[in-house]
Amino acid sequence: MSQIPGKELNGTTARSQDLAPCTTCGRHFARDVLLRHDPICKKVFNKKRKPFNSLKQRLQGTDITTVKKQPPQKKQPVKKSNWRQYHEDFINTIRSAKQVTKALKEGRPLPPPPPPSINPDYIQCPHCSRRFNEAAAQRHIRFCEEQAAHRVAAKTTRKTSITCDYVNCVITLMGIMYSPADHQQGFIDTITILKV
């Protein structure tokens, strides 16, 4: 008798105990079924399946072109935080502020200000020696370089000339005209004119 009520053991279930495993997938089959299963199973398991592309199937037959995936952007390396230096600068600032407050209360002269802290992450401009973060430094250095070039060009184009007679004396220094009236009003500090 079978374990399921109402079902009796017949010849089909008696033969099912004569099962053999498939060499490819490991499932158990009757000997006559295994002969049909084995070549199909080898064919299926030896063939590598391509991953299904649902986007390609959805766009098939439409005018929309396929969108190529962009490679993931490389993450920029995270700079080490120098929090300890920031903390020390902050503590020193507070201490110097307390000394100033104490000096004001007692009526003493003010202590010298603390030296400015130099941020190692900042880049120094070679033209004006100011310091900037990376993004601002790129913009500023380009600008400052142009300004320095303009200043040098302006210095070479300015002319200095002196024209003098006994009545009027006009002096042109760096492109600016000065007359004796300007000298009398105090616009020119010192003018030395040598008679040749």
Question: What coarse outline follows from CA principal-axis ratios?
Answer: elongated
Order of helices and strands: HEEHHHEEHEEEH
Strand order of the largest sheet: 5-6-7
Q: Write down the overall mean pLDDT.
A: 75
Low-confidence stretches: 4-10, 182-191
Number of strands: 7
Helix content: 40-55%
What's the N-to-C terminus distance?
144 Å
Topology, pairings included?
Blueprint: H1 11-15, E1 19-21, E2 28-30, H2 31-46, H3 54-59, H4 83-106, E3 123-124, E4 131-132, H5 134-157, E5 161-164, E6 169-173, E7 176-178, H6 180-185
Antiparallel strand pairs: 1-2, 3-4, 5-6, 6-7
In summary, what is this structure?
It is built from six helices and seven strands. It has helices at 11-15, 31-46, 54-59, 83-106, 134-157, 180-185; strands at 19-21, 28-30, 123-124, 131-132, 161-164, 169-173, 176-178. A hairpin with a 6-residue loop joins strand 3 (123-124) and strand 4.
